[in-house]
Amino acid sequence: MMVRTRKGMTDRHHRILDFIIQRYEEGFPPSIREIGEEVGVTSTSMVTYYLKQLTEMGLIERDPKFSRAVRPTHINSKDLLRVPILGPIAAGLPILLPDPQAAFIGDEINGVDVARSLLPESEKARGLFALKVQGDSMIDAMINNGDIVILKSTNDARNGDMVAVWLPARDETTLKFFFKEKDRYRLQPANPTMDPIYIEKSEPLEIKGKVVMVIRKLDTTVV
Amino acid sequence: MMVRTRKGMTDRHHRILDFIIQRYEEGFPPSIREIGEEVGVTSTSMVTYYLKQLTEMGLIERDPKFSRAVRPTHINSKDLLRVPILGPIAAGLPILLPDPQAAFIGDEINGVDVARSLLPESEKARGLFALKVQGDSMIDAMINNGDIVILKSTNDARNGDMVAVWLPARDETTLKFFFKEKDRYRLQPANPTMDPIYIEKSEPLEIKGKVVMVIRKLDTTVV
DNA sequence: CTTGACACAGAACGTATGTTCGTGTATTAT
DNA sequence: ATAATACACGAACATACGTTCTGTGTCAAG
């Protein structure tokens, strides 16, 4: 007998969480009243109310013994960003769609730690996910079996972006540099010795994300 | 008995600074009274006194607008490893020898921050350096112009290691998988479609380091 | 319509917090 | 010896802080 469908994160939840994360990264956690002032909540009890919910969602931690003792739960430190590995990527496999909700649910799945200093300013926000390359099908993108590709979730791209695309007509996932030309899209392999693929604009083409970084671990340790 | 040193850090300075650093890493900065309790200073004015000195020494920062707004100025992180970028690497260039001394001298040159969690246990020690790939000569190693290669300084390699070698006979630097065979060394490109190079054991071959990681930043240069 | 959970505001209250001031003692320079 | 300085304790005080209580309005299910 649920009275009202429990909405997950509202805009205010997000803004409060963002503010706490921001302050956490600066090293100075905010007080209840500072949070309220930031997000436009005039009452301290309302902030407590939201903080309680965020705590129950497992997104923040509080220590009732101290004032200003609030911090985001996610493992991300001030210097690191933990990017979730959503799954494998291979030529024959469609890319798993990143569920923005799922990122918050306590799915303690695999992830890669990336130094924030390596990411451009604009990517420091959320929306990043990682895929682990399976097989040798991405060789023309200079990407090997086992490499970790970090992407930003997006549905469109600008010329020159390296994007992960799903080509329904070919049942194929591929990583290419994206160029929009007059009547077609040109998907250019990173390897300059290889030829581009041309996709007519009438053909379907799903951009799943923009590649932000590629990490290759050379595991010299014998497993 | 305690000798009064005119200036500099006394034991209490150190303990206060350590406590601030510890709390900073935990995300919960301490209050004046908590600091006093921790280091055995009974008076809040004494803590203020020391904090003022530490601020003047440039070791901590405070924001008088907020409570608990104290943090160490230096950025030390136990999650990150800063790997110095010693220079470019290109086919025609010999690799700069990493000077272990130079890494410690306050040469605030370029560096990459790497999450320790991405490095294998054995590599967490020192001896790592990074090179920035210049040109397309490493394409057969699946490495692009602009990629950052992180190496561990070593003079020998095991079979299967990816190594950076200098071939004096060819005046060439290259990154290849290393295999020792009966009478020769086989240098295998990472790209499986390309053929290996064979070096007779009589020929000179200088192993400069073992590749631990490759990082490719796709600078979409947004904004 | 009634009910009850949800969303929000305001105020009250006890404690926490940082600053300032007064006092005292040991060390050092002159 | 005297003065200046560094070090130390405690109290006082205004404000900051988090919790809790009361009250209001909304919305959907029964």
What can you see in these coordinates?
Chain A is an alpha+beta fold. Chain A is 17% helix and 31% strand. The first copy, chain A, is built from 3 helices and 11 strands. In chain A, the strands form 2 sheets. Chain A has a 9-stranded mixed β-sheet, with no helix packed on it. Chain A has a two-stranded antiparallel ribbon with strand order 1-2. The longest helix of chain A is centred in the first third of the chain and has 16 residues, at 11-26. The radius of gyration of chain A is 21 Å and the shape is elongated. Mean pLDDT of chain A is 78; it is low at 1-6 and 99-109. The interface between A and B is large, with 51 and 52 residues. The first copy, chain A, binds a DNA duplex (30 and 30 nucleotides) through α3.
Annotation keywords:
two-stranded antiparallel sheet, disordered N terminus, 9-stranded mixed β-sheet, 223 residues, DNA-binding, homodimer, alpha+beta, elongated
Secondary-structure blueprint:
Two copies of one chain form a homodimer.
Chain A: H1 11-26, H2 32-39, H3 44-56, E1 60-62, E2 70-72, E3 80-89, E4 111-115, E5 128-133, E6 148-153, E7 162-167, E8 172-180, E9 184-188, E10 197-200, E11 206-217
Parallel strand pairs in A: 3-5
Antiparallel strand pairs in A: 1-2, 3-4, 5-6, 6-11, 7-8, 7-11, 8-9, 9-10
Chain A binds a DNA duplex (30 and 30 nucleotides) through residues 1-6, 31-33, 41-49, 64, 66-68.
